[in-house]
Amino acid sequence: MKELFDMISKKSSKLTTVTYSTSFSLGIRFFSRRFHDPIYAIYGFVRFADEIVDSFHGYDKARLLERFRTDTYLAIEEKISLNPILNNFQWVVNKYGIEKELIDLFLDSMEMDLKDISYDQEKFEKYILGSAEVVGLMCLRVFCEGDDEKYKKLKPPAMRLGSAFQKINFLRDLHADFEGLGRSYFPGIDLSKFDDETKQKIEDDIALDFADGLEGIRMLPRGARFGVYMAYVYFHKLFLKIKRTRSSRIMKERIRIPNRTKYKLLVTSYLKHQLNLL
């Protein structure tokens, strides 16, 4: 029965999300229930592609990613795949009309992680667009539920929010990316000379993205607003902590938000949401 296979596919995407990211899976719970399965489907797809380029050492990553790309488009065209993650992803793509361009840009950015790239401003923006902004747009397609006018209106702030989240990830993981993977995303920056002044310039840029992103959150459908706002609150708290941290420490360790602080953020944010104070 196809229905049984589809159910297994949905459970596979949810299991992938819950296993790989406790914070993201917690955030999905704050969406209206009708958004849970579609967002799990997007996360599962994105996660697997990311794992190919970041984790599968000792394998032919380029070949695996190319096969993943081919299988993705075949699944979308045929509306089925024996890979449960891709089967669930094709379901959400076809149901909500997610554009092929968004998927292309995402997979292109994953391919960039396979190459030893020296990022200039153009490549940096291309990577941010593909790795973060278009993922936000895939989710926005789900949240807008076919309302194309609302999608177009919310598209710019959604992209800015995705950009802010990704740049904070880059700052948080600066040490691990540089030492472990030999990567450095921020253009024109010599990490051997990374100092507080350089860090401040990056933070000023992120602050502008955050401001535009918050305006977009306030215009989201209510069933999606609180979940996205929780992600905003978490990343903003992390951003503030990074701002208070010296550049020398950023280059030595990963900055984290303790679980007890996350729970406090959840309670205060929920009260704001219930009182329409977002």
Would you write up a description of this structure?
- Helix 1 crosses helix 3 and helix 4 packs across helix 5.
- It is globular and about 60 Å long.
- The chain is mainly α.
- The protein has helices at 2-20, 22-28, 36-54, 61-78, 84-96, 100-112, 121-144, 148-172, 174-180, 196-218, 222-243, 247-250, 259-274.
- This is Phytoene/squalene synthetase.
- It holds the Pfam family SQS_PSY.
Features:
transferase, geranylgeranyl diphosphate synthase activity, 76% helix, Phytoene/squalene synthetase, Isoprenoid_synthase_dom_sf, Farnesyl Diphosphate Synthase, Trans_IPPS_bact-type, mainly alpha, 278 residues
Give the gist of this structure.
The protein folds into 2 domains: 1-115, no CATH class; 136-277, Orthogonal Bundle (Farnesyl Diphosphate Synthase). The protein contains 13 helices and no strands.
CATH architecture of the largest domain: Orthogonal Bundle
Shape: globular
How many helices in DSSP terms? 13
Beta-strand content estimate: under 5%
Mean pLDDT: 90
CATH class of the largest domain equals Mainly Alpha
Pfam families: SQS_PSY
Protein name: Phytoene/squalene synthetase
GO molecular function: geranylgeranyl diphosphate synthase activity; squalene synthase [NAD(P)H] activity
Keywords: Transferase
Describe the protein's topology.
Elements (H helix, E strand, L loop, with lengths): L1 H19 L1 H7 L7 H19 L6 H18 L5 H13 L3 H13 L8 H24 L3 H25 L1 H7 L15 H23 L3 H22 L3 H4 L8 H16 L4
